Amino acid sequence: MNTSRALFKASSISKAASILDNPLAGGVSRSFKVLTIGAGTGGISVTATLANKLGKGEVGVIEPSQEHYQQPLWTLVGAGIKPFSSSVRKMSDIIPERATWIKSGAVSVDPEAKRVTLANGETVSYEYLVIASGLENNLDQISGLPQALGKDGVCSNYDPNSVLLTPKFLNEFKGGEALFTMPASPIKCPGAPQKIAYLAEEKFRDNGVRDNSNVSYYSGIGKIFGIEKYANSLWEVANKRNINVNLLHDLVAIDGAKKEASFKVLDGSNEIVKKKYDFIHVTPKMSPHQYLRSSGKKLANDAGYVTVDSQTMQHVVYNNIYAIGDCSSAPTSKTAAAAVVEAFVVKSNLYDRILGRKNSSQLTYNGYTSCPLFTSKNSTIMAEFSGYTGSPIESLFYNQAKESKLSYWIVADLVPEIYWKLHVKGLWNGPSEFKPLTNPFNNN
Ligand SMILES: Cc1cc2nc3c(=O)[nH]c(=O)nc-3n(C[C@H](O)[C@H](O)[C@H](O)COP(=O)(O)OP(=O)(O)OC[C@H]3O[C@@H](n4cnc5c(N)ncnc54)[C@H](O)[C@@H]3O)c2cc1C
User: Fold this and answer.
1) Domain named FAD/NAD(P)-binding: which ranges (predicted)?
2) Hey, which of 189, 194, 340 would you mutate to test ligand 1's pocket, going by the most ligand atoms within 8 Å of its Cβ?
3) Per-residue pLDDT tens for 257-273?
4) Domain with CATH 3.50.50.60 in the chain
5) Ligand 1, atom 47: closest residue by C-alpha
6) Counting beta carbons within 10 angstroms of the beta carbon of residue 269, is it exposed (0 to 12), middle (13 to 18) or buried (19 or more)?
């Protein structure tokens, strides 16, 4: 497999758009009742449900990628537990027949004119717009990473083109220093950078190299996990497994030739600490895509997150625009679990609105998010909480902060099935409707 920056960039929008079918080039304009930008986890749910309800020709979805990924599986792919094929489907098999797939990327949104311009030159207009284009990886923001990635033990689960290097390098590791990093800035699934550390530590034991290795987790933030209930359990896991946890250490540079990582210490000193590595799993810095970052303050904030009301996911200025998932400004932890529930709120309210049901009660989003922290190949701490209040919202009857085999089975085996069989068809709206059965006494 080829390496480095090209791997990540291959999945970026501009490149992806250029290799796609381009049947509509030449400025042909089309119009949709509902237009979605992105057919990832959030976008596909809205698209599937509304296309099904409104019928052919009413719903368009702008999506440049030929593949749809179930990204949460990449942690298990990276650990060598699941095959990559379990995490991917052809986009053509996922987008419903009643929706119109526009095979290009959005390059700008004109909210006043209600139009989106595409990489292929076309302009598409809408009555209602749902923005769900996720985040992009910014490799360049860690000096030396574009050159080092994919070589000599430098890998990342955060991209479909590099995730398979993780199990390769884990198996090649013969002992020494194994580092796992998490940036100081917002990312999707903030638990994923440490999950792979626990799974790797187990693999090193299985491979007989743990006794001559050090496993270290470096995080740019000041806590091992944002919610105390789960953080306490994670500290216990890290301590009993002899994993060194270094907080407020933000990876700023990698020197591939010297096999050395540099961390800025964010304790006010800004000291640079250098650390040799034999294996390093890097979580890159991320941001919303360029078209949002350059869209101007009316659509998005300075960082490019679409500014929405955190309960309705409706834009704060343009009430015919919604944003869901990783690219929205909703202040919760960015996960597929959150995107699923946000999509449910938006598609339900939007459908009522389109039908003119003025008296129907609007659904609201409570910040629900979930992060299954795999601690081994048969145990998981299943964090489920509101990112708005910090309170646990657990779906199951037992204490989910404890390492559990059942939690592992649910997230490693059951949820992926639900995702492919129900979610992508718009038929899964999160676990809350089952909670009276799965957690009848509402234990948290
Ligand atoms: C390694 C890893 C582990 C994870 N683990 C978990 C987990 O355990 N649990 C969990 O809940 N979440 C997890 N996540 C996070 C989860 O995958 C994301 O939060 C979720 O996919 C967000 O959904 P989304 O719809 O906002 O974006 P995405 O699913 O990323 O979809 C965005 C879509 O928009 C498209 N797009 C991009 N730019 C444009 C454009 N300009 N025009 C049109 N379309 C565009 C993309 O091609 C893509 O299809 C993990 C992610 C990773 C990478």
Assistant:
1) 33-146
2) 189
3) 999 999 999 999 999 99
4) 4-135+287-355, 137-286
5) 65
6) exposed
